[in-house]
Amino acid sequence: MKRILVVTTGGTIGMITDPHSHTSIIKDNVDLLSFNELRKLAKIEHIEFSNIPSPQMTPEMMWDLSKLLQEKLKEDIEGVVLTHGTDTLEETAYFLDLVLDTEKPVVITAAMRNSDEIGSDGPRNIFSSVRVVLNKHSKDQGVLVCLNDEIHAAREVTKTYTSNVATFDSPGHGPLGIVDDDTVLFFRKSILRCNISPEKIQSNVALVKTYTGDNGDILEYLKQQNYKGIVLESFGRGNVPPAISKKVKEIIFDKNIPVIITSRCWKGRVLGVYGYTGGGKELQDSGAIFAQELSSQKARIRLIITLGITEDLEEIKKMFKLPFKE
Predict the structure, then answer these.
(1) Per-residue pLDDT for 326 more than 80?
(2) What DSSP element (H or E) covers 271?
(3) Angle subtended by helix axes 89-99 and 296-306, to nearest 10
(4) Residue 297 burial (C-beta neighbours within 10 Å; 0-12, 13-18, 19+)
(5) Reduced 3-state DSSP string for 1-70
(6) Inter-residue contact 49 to 8 (CB < 8 Å)
(7) Of 23, 44, 221, 244, which sits most exposed with the smallest number of CB within 10 A?
(8) Cα–Cα distance for residue pair 85/92, rounded to 1 Å
């Protein structure tokens, strides 16, 4: 039988309900892989990387995880299924998508319900993810996310619902494919993927969201700290209150710190098309870098990795353009 490596990191998929507090808690030695249907698909090998709730995941842990996976993918395996908590799954997925250099499938899955809940979705999601790894069309697709029998690209997917099992979606894009009873079916392929090969990362990157009436106090504080980069989540097409535009210019010119502009909108690109004070064009002229259609959390991941290669603002700007090529 074909060999598939399952790497577990923790999350709800391995949690149980505490009978006293009635809360979801971490449980050691929860067996996620022993059901018969899974054994019929492939020879499953297991490594526990960590057993944490995903809000405790860090960029440094993602970096260590990427190095582990890169080594294991050199072995005679079909690919990897990685289990993860849902809260930060999309960030780990995008991190791995950027840094892993392989054509083998890497599929990340999770669960919205504890392992001991009625209708637990963990086993089904693992089963479907293994089927995706075994499908020949999964090769050279980058890191994929598979939950609720949908397949999504790491670059595009996001958690959209706090509690529903149908939480993961790719707004503006849609799923790459589905896992059906008789087959794994891909509808399309993401063509905006890129691969970055840093020798280190720089995780000291802040993410801040602007708001109506924002006077810039938070950005002023960040300016005084030792942050190496800032992601600023703006309005609409990439616009901010006037005071924020002024602070962005100061941060770039006084501190030479890259400021990446994203949008609070779920769909569409940021672009410097508005010329008023605080408009995207003014930010662009100040040297701010537009993150295209990336979400704020993924733009931060990209900057963390990019700063491991260069701190030059012009080089960073080039690496955020589409399409990106090394």
Answers:
(1) no
(2) none
(3) 40
(4) middle
(5) CCEEEEEECCCHHHEEECCCCCCEEECCCCCCCCCHHHHHHCEEEEEECCCCCHHHCCHHHHHHHHHHHH
(6) yes
(7) 23
(8) 10
The terminus-to-terminus CA distance of the chain in angstroms comes to: 37
Is 12 a known active-site residue? yes
Residues in contact with 103: Cβ distance below 8 Å, sequence separation at least 6, in sequence order: 139, 140
* Choice among 12, 83, 109, 210 that is catalytic: 12
DSSP for residue 73: T
| Distance, CA of 128 to CA of 195 (rounded, Å) | 26
Closest CA to 204 of 320, 54, 60, 319: 60
Q: How distant is the alpha carbon of residue 261 from its chain centre?
A: 17
DSSP one-letter code for 291:
-
Q: Which domains does the chain have, with CATH numbers?
A: 3-186 (3.40.50.1170), 205-319 (3.40.50.40)
Cβ–Cβ < 8 Å for 126, 32? yes
Distance CA 301, CA 231 (A): 10
C-alpha 317/C-alpha 297 separation (Å) is 18
Please give the model's pTM, rounded to 2 decimal places: 0.97
- According to the model, what pLDDT value does residue 29 have? 86
Query: Could you give the C-alpha distances from 73 to 57, 69, 90, 250, in angstroms and in order?
Result: 22, 6, 21, 45
